[in-house]
């Protein structure tokens, strides 16, 4: 449930998020709960039926593993996996190194930057920029 709320942009997840999600889950027909859970994830409204079904099965399997092993992270990982498959563009953007915070990005205004120390073979070394 925490991962579903997180995927919807609710960070940190509060008690009201869990209450709303719990109420919603109780109102869903049991044989459609996994399909309906997929619909809560951003980008899944664009999925074709086979992809939506695969995402639902991924979440169902992860939940079953979480219950069987007593490890809730299996359910969270399944939701994350389904969300990534549902929105590959978003996944590419979140993994794009150009959009990651720059190492050493904090700079002081008016401080000269020595560009001769930039190492083009290792872009993370001596990297300065906005962060």
Structural class: mainly alpha
User: Uncertain regions: pLDDT < 50 for 5+ in a row?
Assistant: 107-131
Radius of gyration: 20 Å
Rough outline: globular
Share of residues in strands: under 5%
The strand count comes to 0
Helix content: 40-55%
Number of helices: 6
Task: Please tell me about this protein's structure.
It is a single chain. The chain has 131 residues and is mainly α. It is 53% helix and 0% strand. The protein is built from six helices and no strands. It has helices at residues 2-7, 15-27, 33-39, 49-69, 73-86, 88-95. Helix 3 (33-39) crosses helix 4 (49-69) and helix 4 (49-69) packs antiparallel against helix 5. The longest helix is centred in the middle third of the chain and has 21 residues, at 49-69. The two termini are 31 Å apart. The model is unreliable at 107-131 (pLDDT under 50).
Task: Give a brief rundown of this model.
With 131 residues, this protein is mostly helical.
Topology, element by element:
Elements: H1 2-7, H2 15-27, H3 33-39, H4 49-69, H5 73-86, H6 88-95
Short key terms for the protein model shown above:
131 residues; mainly alpha; 6 helices; 0% strand; disordered C terminus
């Amino acid at each position: 449930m925490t991962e579903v709320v997180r995927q919807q942009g609710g960070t940190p997840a509060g008690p009201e998020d869990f209450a709303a999600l719990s109420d919603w889950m109780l109102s869903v027909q049991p044989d459609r709960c996994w399909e309906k859970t997929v619909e809560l994830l951003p980008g899944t409204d664009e999925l074709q039926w086979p992809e939506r079904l695969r995402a639902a099965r991924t979440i169902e399997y992860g939940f079953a593993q979480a219950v069987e092993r007593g490890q809730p992270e299996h359910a969270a990982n399944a939701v994350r996996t389904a969300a990534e498959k549902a929105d590959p563009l978003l996944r590419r953007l979140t993994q794009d190194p150009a959009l990651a915070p720059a190492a050493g990005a904090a700079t002081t205004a008016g401080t000269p930057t020595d560009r001769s120390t930039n190492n083009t073979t290792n872009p993370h070394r001596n990297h300065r920029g906005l962060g």
